[in-house]
Amino acid sequence: MLSWLNLNIDKRMKRVLVMLAMLISSIAVYAQIETPVTWSYSSKNTKGDEAVLILTAKIDGGWHMYSQFIADGGPVPTSFKFTPSKDYELVGKVDEKTPAHKGFDQTFQMNIAYFEGKAVFEQKIRLKVPSAKISGKLEYMVCNDQQCLPPEEVEFTISATGTPKTADATVAPAVTDPKTAQATTKVDSTSTAAHATTVDTAANDTVSKSGVTPITTHENGGPTEIKSASTWGIFIEGFLFGFVALLMPCIFPMIPLTVSFFTKRSPSRAAGIRKAIIFGLAIIGIYVIFGLGITIALGEDALNQLASNAIANLIFFVVLVVFAASFFGAFEITLPSSWATKADEKADKGGILGIFFMALALALASFSCTGPLIGNLLVEAARKGQYLGPAMGMLGFSTSLAIPFTLFAIFPSWLQNLPKSGGWLNSVKVTLGFIELAFALKFLSNVDLAYHWGILDREVFLVLWIVIFTMLGFYLLGKLKFSHDSDLHYVSVPRLFLSLTSFAFAIYMIPGLWGAPLKSISAFAPPMGTQDFDLSVLTVGGGSNNNNQASAHTAKKYAGIFHAPHGIDAFFDYEEGLAYAKKVGKPVMVDFTGHSCVNCRKMEANVWSNPDVLQRLKGDYVLISLYVDDRTELPESEQYVSKTTGKKITTVGKKWSDLQASTYNTNSQPYYVLIDHAGKALVQPQAYNPDIQNYVRFLDSGKQAFENQKLTMK
């Protein structure tokens, strides 16, 4: 009997110990500052007074760190700043020795390059003294499948020595500031923190890895190549552009003339077909060489930076507007006539070389029609940042151009079925002009968002598109006429169908002026956050914003910089929002977020928009949204040194990041904390979780805890 009792006590003790261990481990998971990257430093002397600084990042499993080469509008890239010194000078830029994974990200509409496991960076220097200590600061950002951490700044000091005229390379151990050492901590990426607040890093939360198209890598660890599907997508676009070019007045009439030249001036039908095939291959070769020239001239890094660089987008906008004006007949974009003349003279020599120059003469002479199409295609390839994009685009474009010349030479009887040249060819040009003008606005929108101009918000963009496609519909019906258009005596069936499509598309966009999502063009239109008037906020959860109506009449701090979605009347300063919550007697939801936090946007779009959630956010809570990645400078009087990190807090984002880390011991976003008027958490905070019912329970439990607290205090 006694042994049985001892056995049961032993079992119970084991259960208690197991439960206690689980509790302790869960607390450790929910209350920690995640530091998944460890940096180490070294140097080596290469020759004479030259040395190489080696900066190595060891990245925990499941996390990835971003490359240096991320264009504007994307996640925060890794960057390095070296303190200027008379003891050394930099030679070139920091080189990424570890090949980066690459993929096209649908959210940012650009290529994203990132590292996993390990990343090695090297910087060449030229020493002016036998030995020197090189100090500086690096910044990096990491994400996993569930969350992203704010950008982290790390100071470093590296010793380097120079041994002039010595061939042997020596490795010098790095001398680093112990204060900057980074500890590696394993974390559960699906967990949420128990207490939340910020780190001293201006964070730009970014694309989670799951949002990046995976890229295949070589098994031997060699360079990573871009996924072929995206490259072939540019090829298909080029092929379609080439088909449109065939319908232009500079090329379409040339098809029967060129085919007749080969078939009638050749000694046999086989010889004519052979010449037509060579002619087609020459067209492909000319355009592909042109595309390769663009690729080599710019290089991969430049193409990646062009993808979303604000200045580049402004240039693209101007170029497309100029091309549209050319299609409307304002002027013709032509190459020097002497180029076409010389190519035509070479074509008279005959043989394969003569056929090649014939193809070159066609390419040069038709540039007034194909130039805008080629320019638009190259802009699209640059926007996607694909290294072989220009060449693949030109391959598709030229293949589409070459096929008809070859096929009609093989089957000359098909020429009888071709429609006759006429005014419809110019109508094709004008129609393309309207479409290019519409696409040009997308690039202007990118610039407007990057610089916060606020001149092309969603309503203005949609109004311009509605007007453009309405005018296109009237043009196709013959109600608008340009200088090069011939008289339209009747409306053909294709014109009627195209005009109906254009009018229908314009009408489809009208509800977007009042907040309709317009999912089919969401990739082109500015984000919903730029919408000045959103009728959906009156119908989805509307009428429940009465708790915060009074706050709308007060001037809020940072209200000119930040905006809450779905018409929620939010605060963007912690102290100000907390003071208002005390005034109205409501609990507070602190939303640690970021401008580029993809998961934050997903929660706002998919969870906050739910009527049950939105009603609670508007009616039951005072929302305080704190952007941990904002770069707005704090006034000198508000700047301070963080007690948590010892670093100076100089920006709005760093202030809220420091608040999150010091108060809640976490640094990931999104992070939602329900607090009372004393700043105490009411319930367990939550991170990214797209389960709507879970979020409703989260909000309800916080409200209930707040009500219970009020009853206890009475």
Question: What labels describe this entry?
Answer:
714 residues; alpha+beta; 15% strand; five-stranded antiparallel sheet; four-stranded antiparallel sheet
Helices and strands, with pairings:
Blueprint: H1 2-30, E1 37-47, E2 50-59, E3 64-66, E4 79-82, E5 88-96, E6 101-105, E7 110-115, E8 118-127, E9 131-140, E10 142-143, E11 152-161, E12 171-173, H2 228-246, H3 254-264, H4 269-306, H5 310-327, H6 337-347, H7 351-365, H8 367-384, H9 389-410, H10 423-451, H11 458-476, H12 493-509, H13 536-539, H14 574-584, E13 588-593, H15 598-607, H16 611-619, E14 622-627, E15 640-641, E16 648-649, H17 652-664, E17 671-675, H18 692-713
Parallel strand pairs: 13-14
Antiparallel strand pairs: 1-2, 1-12, 2-8, 3-7, 3-10, 4-9, 5-8, 6-7, 9-11, 13-17, 15-16
Helix pairs in contact: 2-8, 2-9, 3-4, 3-9, 4-7, 4-8, 4-9, 5-8, 5-10, 6-7, 8-9, 10-11, 11-12, 16-18
